[in-house]
Protein: (S)-2-hydroxy-acid oxidase
Amino acid sequence: MEDKMGSECEGPEMSLVCLTDFQAHAREHLSKSTRDFIEGGADDSVTRDENIAAFKRIRLRPRYLRDVSEVDTRTTIQGEEISAPICIAPTGFHCLVWPDGEMSTARAAQAAGTCYITSTFASCSLEDIVIAAPEGLRWFQLYVHPDLQLNKQLIQRVESLGFKALVITLDAPVCGNRRHDIRNQLRKNLTLTDLQSPKKGNSIPYFQMTPISTSLCWNDLSWFQSITRLPIILKGILTKEDAELAVKHNVQGIIVSNHGGRQLDEVLASIDALTEVVAVVKGKIEVYLDGGVRTGNDVLALALGARCIFLGRPILWGLAYKGEHGVKEVLNILTNEFHTSMALTGCRSVAEINRNLVQFSRL
Structure:
């Protein structure tokens, strides 16, 4: 019976056809502490769940009798072409779910022709990630350290390794109250490879490291702009007020995000916050979205003004399933769903996905 079950898991009959299939597989096969680390939200997980529920309150208004014999999912972000507006958000500790960790994720992103934002909390070194996927489009996500020299050293290293943008996370001056992680005492067992002092030490245990800066302010952005030529993207903006300040401080992009509901609970779902951000930015800088995307229809959030979406948890589910190949499958499934959604709404190119053509009626 065991042999039969094993062969079923490896054969085509086990095929996973949507992102939630990968979630179910991960729930079955990962340890409880790892599963809780990936799935957990802050406090009551209201925002984590709302990220997904908010998409289901949106209705599409398709247009027909359009020639959709050729549908092109390609677009650009910060001037770089990607195969579809579906990219990989920064998440940490990929080695928890697959031995090659972020190296496998990077290879999958390169094969898919999309952007991968590598986390400060990567469990593989940046050098190994670049070697694994030398041609891939990579951005780097930075948690700002109180030691400016450490930030400078890391940013210069990232730039020299060919990363194309610096993504600064704003919404984590302190860690959200993640009850599952506290119960599981998971944080004591995690290590960081890249957050090292300029004096070059060993890997630093997670949360025994020097803390993330709690004093980062808008005026500090000019220092980052003075030390790098990379475009600066701010991740974690949810309000029009902060979006206005982002434009005023001459950054190159915004990721509308609530950290997957892992930081401050009971904030707006990302898709609900997108509209007010886009309204004040007025196309001056690119706006992206993460949080809650699970289907091709969800990717049509581009109609509300996002340039692309970033996937977090589904990438880890894919990685847990089959490493690089699992991540490729997740990206392929979502891209194919998006292609279908475009055709069924009468959109032949990403440029045609706009408020006039694909409008949303909120229930």
Remarks:
- Residues 19-188+208-360 form a domain with the TIM Barrel fold (CATH 3.20.20.70).
